[in-house]
Amino acid sequence: MTKIYHNPRCSKSRQTLALLEEKGEQIEVIEYLKSSPTQSELAELVAMLGIHPLELVRKGEAIFKEQYKGKELSETQWIEAMVTHPILIERPVVVKNGKAAIGRPIEKVIDIL
Predict the structure, then answer these.
(1) Contact between residue 111 and residue 96 where contact means Cβ atoms under 8 Å apart
(2) How far apart are CA 71 and CA 86, in angstroms?
(3) Which run of H or E residues covers position 12?
(4) In DSSP terms, which residues pair with 28 in a beta bridge?
(5) 76-to-15, 65, 100 alpha-carbon distances in Å
(6) Which of 10, 60, 63, 80 is the most exposed place for a label (fewest CB within 10 A)?
(7) Is residue 22 within a helix (H) or strand (E), and if so which, with residue range?
(8) What is the pTM of this model?
(9) Taking the CA atoms of the chain, what radius of gyration do you get in angstroms?
(10) Separation of alpha carbons 39 and 65, rounded Å
(11) Could you write out the DSSP letters of every residue in 38-91?
(12) What range defines the domain where residue 99 resides?
């Protein structure tokens, strides 16, 4: 089963979902704005991605600019910020067989399929 943390309003997320469908993947679609990941789920995603939580944050969002820009937060605090404001989570994120990739560019997703 392949999971995609998906925002249907995002063109990159829609393109990535279409790619997974084309590849015949069995897909679990998680619309993370409707059902926000938990702190432990996000921590697991960050670990699978091999990144610092800040690298999963969308820095162009208004909420980031208003509340977080220029702040020095711990990894836990960044994860808490994304749980509180799921719009901050970069998208799409695809998970398969214990590996994860952010679909920007989409080719990164192909690498884990």
Answers:
(1) no
(2) 18
(3) helix 11-22
(4) 3
(5) 31, 19, 19
(6) 60
(7) helix 11-22
(8) 0.94
(9) 14
(10) 22
(11) PHHHHHHHHHHHTS-GGGGB-TTSHHHHHHTTT----HHHHHHHHHH-GGGB-S
(12) 2-110
SS3 of 18, please? helix
Q: What is the pLDDT of residue 106?
A: 92
The encoded tokens of residue 58 equal 């969308």
CATH number at residue 62: 3.40.30.10
- The structural domain count of the chain equals 1
Say how far apart CA 92 and CA 103 lie, in whole Å: 5
Q: pLDDT under 50 in the chain at which residues?
A: none
Mean pLDDT of the chain: 96
